[in-house]
Design a protein that fits this description.
elongated, 2 domains
Length: 177
Amino acid sequence: MSGQPITPSAALQQAYLANRERLVRFLRARGAGEAAEDLAQDLWLRLSSGPDPVAAAGLGYMMRAADRLMIDRYRAERQGALRDKAWAESQPGLSDNIAPAPGADRTIAARQQFALVDDALAAVGDRAAAIFRRHRIDGMTQRDIAAEFGISLSTVESDLRRAYAAILEVRRALDEV
């Protein structure tokens, strides 16, 4: 050492680093869990920006500051949960896991898009449209569809490719609007 006195902020940093693991354990024991490391960093920011680094360098002061940090965290989480609950209760059906009914404009747009897709599927042919519906709507495997229609697996794949291409064209047209 050069004999120069240690500044109060340097003394605070040394004290914090010497007690950091103990503070992290304290935060974990108070319920911080995996967030304890992040909270320890928040604690350092609070301590280092405080008005009295000499007082903040004391272990008791650091522990009280960590305790206040946990209380603040608990209050913030509680307020957030209450706010989220109040918002969910204000939304029709959300608290019952029921999605709200779409507005009239969305219903009309969905019907128009369905009509476009239905027309596109009709344009690829009855068999390709039926294969598409059996696969995508009914959830049948391509192999089972081939057996049901009495065609090869490659024919099923070809018909599906044509149906997908037709639907993709509809999507592109809708995206351009």
